Amino acid sequence: MTSTRHQGPLTESEQKWYSAFEHKLKSLQGNAGFQTAFLDPIQQELAAKLLKEHSHLASLAYGGYPGAERVRLRIFPASQPGILPEVACLLVSPAATDAGLGHRDYLGAVLGLGLRRDQVGDIVMLPDDRAAVMVDQSKTDFICAQLTRVGQMPVECLPANPAALPLLGGEGKEIRGTVAGLRLDAVMALGFGISRSRAVLLIKGGLVKVNWRPVDTPAYQLREGDLISLQGRGRLELLAVAGETRKGRLRLNLKKYS
To answer: For the segment 119-136, what is each residue's pLDDT rounded down to a tens digit?
Structure first.
């Protein structure tokens, strides 16, 4: 079975996606190409591996803004110029600026319209509880017409220019500090500036992924290169374990994207 860089054997659904994508690449003829739905980072890694075996094909990735986690790919003959996949950005604004809405609320409301998860890209939380939602461009009019509430809160949904919004991306912020060990809750507490008990609640609440897979165990042991995603708060990369202090604590170099 195919393995990804971080997590070893694929799940059944990942293997199914891998086989379907491989079949589609092999079935392309002449100047044919196609555009994928939104891919998560594991699917992107698998797609890149398969595309290396098809040197006559090229691809362009786009998720609506630089640094997007979920992107679409456009596959096309390498002899032809390519264009970016079609991604639209929707700005969803609640009627009240203290609505208390979060990433899960917006994702649930959008999927509640009948959309598949792969028709929706990143959802980035903005000031005043607003959200920027990346979607399949063909779904823009439908979503804006139907998305009138998130939870019990009335919202306004309008197309937006992602370049004008403060979206996740950029070079990230470097963080250095010490931890007793490489437990997930300890590293999260350092990187996100929260208490360890708060980190435990977030992990057990299903809001944390490591290398794009859900992890609900606070004691999960991290390694250099691991990427921690905290829903609504951004991502944290464990760049290096830079030795120990005299008291035996580990010195960590982290990078936070938020």
So the answer is: 999 998 887 889 999 999
